[in-house]
Write a structure and sequence with these properties.
Blueprint lengths: L1 H11 L19 H12 L21 H14 L11 H17 L7 E5 L2 H11 L3 H7 L5 H14 L11 H17 L14 H18 L6 E5 L5 H9 L2 E5 L9 E4 L11 H11 L3 E4 L7 H6 L14 E7 L11 E5 L2 H7 L1 E3 L7 E3 L8 H39 L4 E3 L6 E5 L5 H10 L5 E3 L4 E5 L9 H18 L7 H11 L3 H16 L9 E3 L7 E2 L9 H8 L5 E3 L5
Parallel strand pairs: 2-3, 4-5, 5-6
Antiparallel strand pairs: 1-7, 6-7, 8-9, 10-11, 11-13, 12-13, 14-15, 14-16
Helix pairs in contact: 1-18, 2-7, 2-8, 3-7, 3-14, 4-14, 5-13, 9-10, 15-16, 15-17
Subcellular location: Endoplasmic reticulum membrane
Protein name: sphinganine-1-phosphate aldolase
Keywords: Endoplasmic reticulum, Lipid metabolism, Lyase, Membrane, Pyridoxal phosphate, Sphingolipid metabolism, Transmembrane, Transmembrane helix
Length: 579
Amino acid sequence: MEKARKDLEETIHESDRKKEFYKFLPERGLPPDAILSEAELYEAMSEYTFYDGRVSGVMYTDYDEEHRKLLENIFTMFAYSNPLHPDLFPGCRKMEAEIVRIVCSLLHGGAPSCGTVTSGGTESIILACLAHAVFDLLLSVQPSRFKTHASNMLLIFTMFAYSNPLHPDLFPGCRKMEAEIVRIVCSLLHGGAPSCGTVTSGGTESIILACLAYRNRAYERGIRHPEMIVPITAHSAFDKASQLLHIRIHHVPVDKNQRADLVASAPNFPSGTVDNIEAISELAQRYGIPLHVDACLGGFLLPFMERCDFPVPAFDFRVAGVTSISVDTHKYGFAPKGTSLILYRDVSLLHHQYFCYGDWPGGIYATPTLGGSRNGCAIALTWATLLYYGRHRYTERTQAIIEAARLIRAGIEENPHLEPLGDSDVSVIAFTSDKFNVYALADRMKKMGWTLSTLQNPAALHVCVTMNHTKAGVVDDFLRDLSSACEDLVANPGLQQTRTAAIYGMASAVPDKCLVEEVSYLYLDSCYAMPAPVVVGRTLSIEGRKMSLIGGQPPVFPPSSLANATAGGPIYESNASQT
C-alpha cells in the first residue's frame, strides 16, 4: 500500500514541482495581472493537447473561435447571476426555461414535458432517483471576487471553460487550484496539517456531503437508522439532506435572543450500447413502474443521428413508458462544463424533485435542484450555445462524429488482436483482447500520445469519439498506432508488465474489494495532498502570496525585511543556508 501511495503521489504531483503551492491566504490581495499570470501557468501544466484528437472523450468540442468569443461576452453579462432569485434575474430564468423546452421538444416530450437544468449527469440521475423514490430500494440493498478584475476573470474563464477536475491527469492546473483553495481555507480556520476537504458547488451541497459522510460513518458503526439534531434556525439544507439521505431529523427550539424505478442507458458509458428501451418500457408499463433513460452521453447525438439517416433505437419520450430522461449539454451539446438536464414526462414527477421547507425562520425555502445558489453563467452559456449551434450545426457535427466512430469500429473489427465489445451504437467503441493484457495496450498507446479509457468486468478499453477525432488524419493515425501497439505487445510479452496492468490485475485478483477501495482513497487523497519540498527553505512574498513555510520552524524576519515587504518592495528568498 505504501508503494501504491508513493506511485500515485508521484504521478499526480509530477506537474506540481513546477510551481510552489499557495498554502495561506495572502495578506494583501494579488494584482489582477499577477493572478492572470498565475492562471496561465496552471493552464500550461497539462501536457495534453486536447484539440489534436488524441484524448478519449473529456473534451467533447473542438476549438471554435467564434463560439469562444460568444461565450466570453455572455459570461461578462451573467457571471454573477443566480437563478435562485428569478425576480432579480428574470432573463436567466427565461433562458433556463427555454433550454428545457428546446431539449424537451428535441426528445419529443410533448406539451406536458418539463425539467430543470442541473450541474451535470450525476445530479440529473440523483434527482431522477429522488423523484422516483428509489432511495428506499437502494438503502435496502446497500446502507453504505472592478473592471480590471472582471476582464481578467473573463480571460481565466477562457482558459478553464472546458476544464474538468474529474480528470486530474489531464487538467493538473485545475486540480492544483482546488487543492490550494482547500489548504488556504483550512489554514484560515486553523485547521492544522491533517485538515482537508473538497470544493463543492455551493453551501447546500457542502451540507449534504457532510451529512453523507456522517451517515456513512454511522453505517460503518452498525447504525442502520442515523439521526441528527438541529436547531430550528439551521439552514434548510439539513432538511434536504434528511430527505435525500434518509436521516431522521429532530428540530429543537432556540432561546428567545417502496416502489422502484427502472433505468436504461442511451448509450451506456462502457461499451456505448443503447439499451432495449422499448422492451424495458413494456415491463415498466406492465408493473406501473417509472422508467428513467440516462441519455447524458447520447442525448445530443441520437436526435441528430436520425437526421443523418443513421439507425437510431427508440429511446426518448416517444416510448410510452419513459417517464424521465437525463441529458448532458456539456458533452455533445458543446456547452462549458457544469450543465445537464433532468427532464420529466409531466409535472407530477417534477414536484417530487422540488424541495420546499416552510418553517425555517429565514423564510420559505424552495429549490428545484440539489443546489441552492447556482451559477447563472452556466445557464447563460448553455443557452447561448444552443442558439449558436442550432439544429444544422448539431447535425453536421453529429454526422462527422458518428462517421469517425464507424471508421474506428471497422478498424478494430479488422484487427486480429482485438475484439469489439457491444454494438457501438453511438460514439463509444469498446474493445478487449485475448492475446495480451489489454491494460498494457492502454499504457502503450499513452506513450504514443493517445489516451484511452480503461474498463473492467471485463477488462477492456474504449475510445469516446469527439469532434477532435474528426479532423483530417486523426482516425487513420489512431488505427495505425493501435495496430502497431498490438503487434509490439504480441511480439514482446514483457511489455505487458505495466503500472495500469498491475493495478487492475490486483483489483481483479483481490476478493476483498475493501483493498481496492483503499487504493482509490489513496488516489483521491493524493489529489489534495501537498508534495514534499525539494529544497528546505522559506519564501516571503511582498504581496503576502507565499508566506509559506517550506521546512523547519516559522521564520523570524528582520524588521527591515518586514517593512520592505509591507511597503511593496522586492521579493526576498531565504534559502536553507540562511535559516
